[in-house]
Target: Diaminobutyrate--2-oxoglutarate transaminase
Amino acid sequence: MDVFEQWESNVRSYCRTFSDVYVSAKDCKMVAENGKRYIDFFAGAGALNYGHNNTYMKRKMIDYLENDGVIHGLDMFTTAKRMFIEIFQREVLAPNDYPYKMQFCGPTGTNAVEAGIKLARKVTGRTGIFSFMGGFHGMSLGSLALTGNLHNRAGAGIPLSHVTFMPYPHGFMDTFDTIQYMETVLSDENSGVDKPAAIIFETVQAEGGVIVAPIEWMRQLSDLCKRHDILLICDDIQAGCGRTGTFFSFERAGIVPDLVILSKSISGYGLPMSLVLMKPELDIWNPGEHNGTFRGNQLAFIGGTAALEYRKQINLEQAVKQKADFIDNFLNKEIASLDSNIKIRGIGMIWGIDVSNLADKEISKKVVTDCYEKGIIIERAGRGDTVIKIMPPLNIEIELLLQGMNIIKEIMQKHCAQTVNEGDIIVHA
Model:
């Protein structure tokens, strides 16, 4: 029995799929202890939009460390924080006239979600939150209450209350007017549903199976919140920081949520950091009313500042759009054609291959397992984990991207050709 099996808790999860022991990682590749190299189509679950050990960011952080820069500062003023605030305001907020103030929370996204819903309740004086079926917002109790997955919710051990789940525009709800449903619920004095403090949503339900919200739906959702004096919270933890093309994933809809939650790749380098953006009139916190020993990770400020510099230097937004077109074309021409029941969904550089309607209900697990054997780290998502999720670092070289996509195609071809129906092998051309 190895040290991990003997001493690490059963709660560990990713290592059960990616079972090698890793010793190094650079850009879009990881290297295992046994020397095997892997193409990373996982990107730290979205925390590594700029790849592993990005050279530019690493140099900035090493310089900061060698000059004895402040590492732990609670929420005190530091030069690292000032640099990040200045560049974030200048490069991200100002070009779109976003009015947001910044709150630096505890290390992970779930803490920022907790802060966001706490603030929404404080501002409105209401307790309820509307969340969406299929959404994922974190694993601490408040965030978990907003999360739809029953397996995750069961781990709480107590009832998760004050949240009403609304239908997301997907599946049977493609033909169901979810906005009108919410309008009716909010307007009907006999609906039994109180007006919430906020509605929290993801523009792309990543863990939910890479489900992309339509632009018009997002606009209608924003209008609904304005009509009913409800705060709109965009959880941009996984889809933000350039993953969908623009820095914020909601930019394509032209809306301005009241609060925005960022984490994962906001630090640039994969360091823990989370951030709540709020319209200034909502900033009614009393000093220390939401705090934490590790709020405002100083080294993450350095990485986050370097990330914004790096994005501009390499014109990352344009590069993502080009790679997005490549992935879109490849998946729809080379993968969707293997079986009419395969569905392709995605935007920017987050894509899903939905195999839930194939006869072999284990095909997603088999594909991910074979991909790992062939040297690709890729995960599953969605209901029943039936969506193969493609999420490489944004700066992956096109040659490496093509190499990885061709391996996925090869493995998909094999498993689609092995689809069995009543004992006969059906080959889907």
Q: What stands out?
A: The radius of gyration is 22 Å.
